[in-house]
Amino acid sequence: MTAYPFNDDWTYRQPIGPFAGAFGEAKANTAVRLPHDALRDEERRADAPGRGAGAYFPRGAFTYLKEFEVPREWVGRLVRLEIQGAFRRAQIFINEEFAGNRADGYARFFVDLTPYLVFGKKNALRIEVRAGEDSRWYSGAGLHRPVVLHVDEPVHVVPDGLSISTVRVEDDQAVVDIATTVANAGMTTQTVRVRTEITDAAASIVEGDNTPVTLAPGEKSIVRQRFYVSEPELWSPDHPSLYTAEVSIEGRESRVRSSFGIRTVTVDPRKGLRINGEKILLRGACVHHDNGALGAAAIGRAEERRIELLKAAGFNAIRAAHNPVSVGMLDACDRVGMLVLDEAFDMWTRFKTPFDYAAEFPQWWTADLESMVAKDRNHPSVIMYSIGNEIAEVGTPHGARWARRLAERVRALDPTRPVTNGVNALLAIIDEVPEIVEQLGGLNAAMADGNVFNAISASSSASDRIEESSSVLDVLGLNYAESRYSIDAEAFVHRVIVGSESFPSQIGRLWPMICANDNVIGDFSWTGWDYLGEVGIGSRTYAGDSNASGRLEREFPYLTAWSGDLDITGWRRPASYYREIVYGLRSEPFIAVRRPEHFGVEIVNSSLWAWSDSVSSWTWSGYEQKPVTVEVYASADEVALLRDGDEIGRARVGEVLPMMAVIDTVYRPGTLTALAYENGIEVGRTTLTTAGEAVLVARADRARLRNDDADLSHVEIEFRDADGRLVTDADREVSVTVSGAAALAGMSSANPATTERFDSHTWRTFDGRALAVVRPSAIGNATVTVSSEGYADVVLNLQVETAEAER
Questions:
Q1: Which residues of the chain register pLDDT less than 70?
Q2: What top-level branch of life does the organism fall under (predicted)?
Q3: Rounded to whole angstroms, how far apart are CA atoms 497 and 481?
Q4: Does 588-616+618-689 carry CATH code 2.60.40.10?
């Protein structure tokens, strides 16, 4: 098999119907390098049909076009197009002949182009996509994941034809099975030899085999080979050791490579989740698929950077919300050591939005499950498959039938991983909610802990209604239902639970519960990284706020959910440091200061997805001598607050939230110090100092780039003082110009409510920061110039090097 990257030399435009085209109507074509999100650059509007769910972006339909040479040498070969993600309802035409389609915007699929090709000439490829009111979050639109062209000889390893699994791990060796599916598309019977070599991280061959196989015309056959790897380096989050399997057919060009990890995964209600026999608790982050300033484009380096930053913030697992993640993100998880809960669907047969996948689910679910498992089964980071998220049907008998059908299909495809489902018990019994609330003593009683989900999820009705659909799972995922943890430990003694979705503000209360219940294997917070759409669900609404709609989502121009531990630029918000302390990963206290403009203002809506409106800063120009609220996060029982060495406040830890102390004081510039005490003994301290005069600074995370479709340089733009302190109140417009062998791919700040555009060269910083994303476009040097009125320009030099022609 020869696989050609196929992401360059595309154009896109709005669709043209056949009659309009016949009468000469034309649309402007824009050149793009894939992956690409066409919807990102459309105009946001307050009256967009999808409203806040889709971040006020409009509907969109787009046509992608590409011409490519088909040499005569390809006669007699199979030519297939691999599309890793096209949102949505993609139709593929080659030389204006229909070649294939796919409904799901996240499914990876293959289209056989062979019957429609004209050899020795340029061929025209056209892909139609459309999106609108078919998602509960910002979906984007277009070829948002990579495209690859596969050219195979008649006898070849089929796409996704390599399946690698760890049979067992012994003291001195690991047993690994590799099953290779080989096909014969020729007209004669062929006997070939399948050679497999396993290499370690140093590219040294550690095992190999050579097996004959005979194939009749039109036949597929599986070649199974068992390998014994001596003294294996096991894959785990702390030691993500990778091997590579290369399978070739002797005497032919067909060659397939796949990285893999040697590791085992087990779950049970007494010993929890074990990787290679060692217990591990999932410190999980739910993540949506967008990449902030890039929209939905899953460019490899952007995916990798997200995983690196999430792991640095203390997470060891992600939950794909609510669709299979990209190949690029899984590759990054394998390399970095991030566990993955891999999710298939956000709905089955019942609609959540007017035009979503529920209309296609009955016809496509099998193919889409097969696609997810085939794409992801060789990734050691993937430890669990989820068949859905908040599926309303799971509380009905026929919904349980669907659950069993899906779970068994996944097990048939891959028996090595547990199967789960993200169950929202409240949604599953939504028809009974009024009666249950009345039984609980009314709405106020049901919300006694601030979470009506908990009270209803713990009801006997919820237990009964979800019992059958839950019984088909290896691990029951519970969304916002930690009240069931101890209940189910007694009522369902064989049930293993994961907190598949939880309120981020509650982690201080949740994590001790998870540690105390052996039947619970971890928690996934909503969310680890802020995302586009479901706008403002993590914001606080204050009295007099003109942007308050009365709904969960906020009004235009809100852009992001504002619920992530990390914002859309990758900057850690205060909640992230609180979580790190709760997890026991950070001993040093942390100081955050609530924005003083809100001091004393009534909060009329504080979502459980929201953190306090705080910033880790003691720089608040214009608020001198005015009251301000300081939060100190600490694993301690008491905190003292000092300003320039003088104590100005003291508070018990845990009165508002576990591991948090809250102190009201007055803002005066200087140095703020928090001392943490346990039983009267100091156990940690930290400081914040008022920043001095701002200087514009910029730094690129990568100065050397490859000229391929996967690489990027992220340029962090900040205002800092001479000592490196972030000047959070120095927000100004900054502009970015890129010249030479690269281009500005997108720009943004973390501002959750703005009318600024991601394709703009100028943004206003938010809390002193902005981010520019630079994408290579040619081989050579590139210059990035960052400017802001009144400040010296910052000039960065990047070098773009050649990339491999094939992979």
A1: 1, 19-26, 437-438, 440-451, 546-551, 804-807
A2: Bacteria
A3: 11
A4: yes
Coil, strand or helix at 776: strand
The single-letter code of the amino acid at 568 is I
HSE-CB at 253 with a 13 A cutoff on CA atoms is: 11
What average pLDDT does the chain have? 95
**pTM, entire model:** 0.96
Q: How far is CA 425 from the centre of its chain?
A: 24
CA angle 140, 325, 127 (to 5 degrees): 45
Interstrand relation of 265-268 and 220-230 (parallel, antiparallel or unpaired): unpaired
- Cα 140 to Cα 109, 114, 536: the distances in Å are 19, 30, 18
**8 A C-beta contact, residue 798 and residue 703:** yes
Separation CA 654–CA 481 (nearest Å): 22
Q: How far is CA 272 from CA 52, 280, 386, 495, in A?
A: 39, 8, 18, 10
pLDDT for 509 equals 96
* Interval 76-90: pLDDT, tens: 999 999 999 999 999
Measured torsion, CA atoms of residues 48, 52, 57, 61, in degrees rounded to the nearest 10: -80
The b-or-e profile of 476-502 (16+ CB within 10 A means b, else e) is: bbbbbbbbbbeebbeebeebbbbbbbb
Residue with tokens 């140095």: 671
Domains of the chain by residue range: 2-152, 155-263, 267-393+401-415+488-529+564-580, 588-616+618-689, 695-801
Task: Give 2-152's CATH code, choosing from 3.20.20.150, 3.90.1010.10, 1.10.238.10, 2.60.120.260.
Answer: 2.60.120.260
Would you say the C-alpha torsion 716, 717, 722, 723 has a positive or negative sign? negative
What CA–CA distance (Å, rounded) separates 55 from 568? 14
User: What three-state secondary structure class fits 668?
Assistant: coil
Q: Give the DSSP H/E element, type plus range, for residue 375.
A: helix 361-376
CA-CA distance, 508 to 654, in Å (whole number)?
Answer: 9
Cα gap 596→612, rounded to integer Å: 12
Three-point CA angle 285, 288, 291, nearest 5°: 110
CATH class of 695-801: mainly beta
How many residues belong to the chain? 807
**Spatial separation of the C-alpha atoms in residues 219 and 710, rounded to whole Å:** 36
Give the right CATH number for 155-263 from 2.60.40.420, 3.40.50.880, 2.60.40.10, 3.30.70.3270.
2.60.40.10
- pLDDT, tens digit, for every residue of 728-766? 998 999 999 999 999 999 999 999 999 999 999 999 999
Helix (H) or strand (E) holding 730: none
Q: How many Cα atoms occupy the beta-carbon half-sphere of 481 within 13 Å?
A: 25
The pairing of strands 733-740 and 780-787 is: antiparallel
Residue 232, token pair as written in the block: 């294996």
- SS3 label, residue 123: strand
Cα–Cα separations (whole angstroms), residue 621 to 35, 594, 624: 43, 14, 7
As given in the structure block, the two tokens for residue 716 are 């962090």
In whole angstroms, what is the distance from residue 494 CA to residue 52 CA?
41
713: Cα within 13 Å, side-chain hemisphere: 29
